[in-house]
Amino acid sequence: MDDLSTYYQVLGLKPGASPEEVRQAYRDMVKVWHPDRFAHDERLRGMAQEKLKEINGAYESLKAQAFEASIAPEPAGATETETTAAASPARNRTALWTTVGVFAFVLVAAAILFFAKGGGGKAGSSAAIHPAITNNIASLTNAPCSLSFYGSHSRLTIATTGSLSGAFTVEFWALNRQAKTGGTILSSRTPDDFGFDIKFREGKRFHSDIGDGSHWLVRNANATCAYKADTWYHLAYVMTPNSYLVYVNGKVAGGGEILPEGNPLLYDDGHQLCFGVERLDADDFDGLLADVRVWQTVRTEEEIKSGMKRTLTGNEPGLTGWWRFAEGSGTNTADSSGHGFNGTLTGDFSWSKDVPPAIRR
Fold first, then answer.
1. Same domain as 104, residue 18
2. Does residue 272 share a domain with residue 228?
3. Does 303 share its domain with 203?
4. CB 3.0-4.6 Å disulfide test: which of 37, 86, 121, 292 passes with 172?
5. 244 with 167: CB under 8 angstroms?
């Protein structure tokens, strides 16, 4: 039995089922095997978690297969073949220079990693490059992935130091599996409350609460968006001491004043930055998260619109944290900005190659 047949079988379907049938079967299976249904029995809960990972793996593989089929090129006719043959020298030169460029980049990255480990110095010499920079280089050589959260208090905890407040921008790509239910994408409301959060909220809006660490500045800082299930959205929240703006897919979708003026807080020692769970409300995230960026600057509409469609270098001015999830496995993910704000994953999660088209490479 081939892999595709196995994936269909996991979802209780026959090979060749339509995308809508696959989606509905997936939702039905998640309801049956969600670990929260077995909270009374740790053994059954563990079995359900393993089964849910198998279900999610099959669903994401079938989604990827459907995407590849949808972009497969049409067979070329005789005229197109002739045109391609005539243009081949130029294309070959382009392909050659592309290959040379990629090879050169790999060589440079390998050399930096080599010297970072002390291989370029005399015997007994120590590494000359900070580990955070080494992690940054390593993460940029791998393709980005997304993190798949399944509720049940699964989360990504970021090891931030210091604080970020006043003016900042948070942006990321997110996908919710259920259009009629909400879920916390980001939160810094623990261990102390009155931090910051961003949520999917009941299929009609994105929701945020803005605090200064000791009290609320704005509740229900919302952006109207009738989001759909299994669809990627780019969100950007831009904060200043007297206002906020929310961008959805590069366009303003909400905003308002902060009166009286305050100091919006993203994180500090008493407000841990986490993704996937709030830990105060029972609305854990059931979906995918990709390409998270935190800036200590106020990003403009043009910067957000153009930046969401390209990969960063990691050295952009004002970039404080950038998580590409390029590892593809394990329970840790590196901060590709080089600031060392690495993340630790706990709970029910998995890695996925389902990423927004804008960040694929």
1. no
2. yes
3. yes
4. 292
5. no
Task: Please name the residue ranges forming H helices in the chain.
Answer: 3-10, 19-33, 42-70, 78-116, 131-140, 301-307
Do both 113 and 158 map to the same domain?
no
Q: SS3 of 63, please?
A: helix
pLDDT of residue 280: 63
> Would you say residue 135 lies in a domain?
no
Its domain, for residue 121, covers 96-129
User: What is the C-alpha to C-alpha distance for residues 45 and 33, in angstroms, rounded to an integer?
Assistant: 9
Flag whether pLDDT at 5 surpasses 50.
Answer: yes
Which stretch of DSSP H or E encloses residue 2? none
Question: If you search the block for the tokens 């299994």, which residue do you land on?
Answer: 230
∠ CA 133-356-288, nearest 5°, is 85
Nearest Cα to Cα of residue 188 among 269, 273, 265, 264? 273
Q: What is the mean pLDDT of the chain?
A: 80
Q: What is the 3-state secondary structure (H, E, C) of 214-243?
A: CCEEECCCCEECCCCCCCEEEEEEEECCCE
Q: From 106, 129, 152, give the residue that closes a domain.
A: 129
Q: What is the pLDDT of residue 210?
A: 97
pLDDT tens digits, one per residue of 69-117: 543 443 333 333 333 333 334 444 444 444 444 444 444 444 444 444 4
Question: What's this model's pTM, rounded to 2 decimal places?
Answer: 0.65
More confident residue, 360 or 229: 229
In a domain, residue 134? The reply is no
Cβ–Cβ under 8 Å, residues 235 and 356:
no
Amino acid at 60: E
